[in-house]
Amino acid sequence: MKKRVTSNNQRRAQKKVLLMGRSEAGKTSMRSIIFANYIARDTRRLGATMDVEQSNVRFLNNLVLNLWDCGGQDNFMETYFTTQRNVIYSNVEVLIFVFDVQSSDVQKDLEKYQGCIEGIIKFSPDAMIFCLIHKMDLVPPAQREHIFDSRRNELEFRSKPLKICCYATSIWDETLYNAWSKIMSLLIPNVAELKRKLRKFADTIGADEVLLFEKATFLVVADHVRKEHSEKHRFEKISNIIKQFKLSCNKMQSFFKSIEVRNSTFSAHIELFTSNMYIMVVMSDPQVCSAAIQLNINNAKQYFREQDVS
Predict the structure, then answer these.
(1) Given its phi and psi angles, is residue 170 left (phi above 0), alpha (psi -120 to 50 degrees) or beta?
(2) What whole-number distance in Å separates Cα of residue 12 and Cα of residue 35?
(3) If DSSP states are collapsed to H, E and C, what string results for the chain?
(4) What's this model's pTM, rounded to 2 decimal places?
(5) With the C-alpha atoms ordered 103, 79, 131, 175, is the resulting torsion angle positive or negative?
(6) Which terminus has fewer CB within 10 Å in the chain: N or C?
(7) What is the maximal distance between C-alpha atoms in the chain?
(8) Which residues of 240-270 are buried (b: 16+ CB within 10 A; e: fewer)?
(9) Lowest mean pLDDT among 121-125, 212-216, 248-252
(10) Residue 39: its pLDDT value, please?
(11) What is the overall mean pLDDT for the chain?
């Protein structure tokens, strides 16, 4: 495992995130989609992670994730519970454990997970823990809710006394963005202030909803909804769609700055808002023209830029 020497200031600026799970659970694929701009079909070319791959990922401005992608082969995982235990589990901010929902040995998955939980309890008892029940697209739709609830109940029992959060995920739909958006929002130090400013901005201009997306990953950072919508996962679907469009622009050596979608019932305006974020403003008032939306966004930029996540 490669080691880096970092100063105390660097350590304070970083948040250590463990990405764990048995071999072929899908850890590296999801990391590559979220942070390395892979599309789902291209992850088939990725090889297995050997030992531990460390990378520093900048999210927003001064939030740096020290991401540890831990190889899931049995011989590697054994060292995580023995010789490397102190190194792996010390100073952990977040543990993300990925389960293959179609694993042929669920009992072994659970044993490895419990070994991780024991390490977290000993060395990082305040860490946040997330369990991703992955590859849910392979489960028949009628069975998904039952299987997810059953796995979640088992994991909650085995995690005691720690509290955990579980998500059903797949690289082929918006569920991956939903889970990672929820996880990342908990790591942003001033997300409550961002939400307060969004609420004030939305109320001032009469928007149905306003969202902030992180520039590189297009994960949802914060949102405020004034008018409820029947589609509960629309934000994550938009993240996925716009990120793919942004990648297409990059391939054409073009820079994605803004896009507007408008019909007789609503308008949605997405554009680069600060150095680290895109904004989306949704309006259903047909009397509000595009120029007025653009003017309001421009006027709000300085209000948000002053606090562009430090």
Answers:
(1) beta
(2) 22
(3) CCCCCCCHHHHHHEEEEEEECCCCCCHHHHHHHHHCCCCHHHHHHCCCCCCEEEEEEEECCCEEEEEEEECCCHHHHHHHCCCCHHHHHCCEEEEEEEEECCCCCHHHHHHHHHHHHHHHHHHCCCCEEEEEEECHHHCCHHHHHHHHHHHHHHHHHHHCCCCEEEEECCCCCCHHHHHHHHHHHHHCCCHHHHHHHHHHHHHHHCCCEEEEEECCCCCEEEEEECCCCCCCCHHHHHHHHHHHHHHHHHHCCCCCCEEEEECCCCEEEEEECCCCEEEEEEECCCCCCHHHHHHHHHHHHHHHHCCCCC
(4) 0.85
(5) negative
(6) C
(7) 66
(8) bebbeebeeeeeeeeebeeeeeeeeeebbbb
(9) 248-252
(10) 81
(11) 88
**How many percent of the chain have pLDDT more than 70?**
93
Confidence of residue 157 (pLDDT cuts 50, 70, 90): very high
Which residue type, as a one-letter code, is found at position 15?
K
pLDDT at 139 over 90: yes
Q: CA distances (Å), 148 to each of 131, 234, 300, in order? A: 11, 21, 41
The pLDDT, as a whole number, for residue 237 is: 86
Report the residue count for the chain.
310
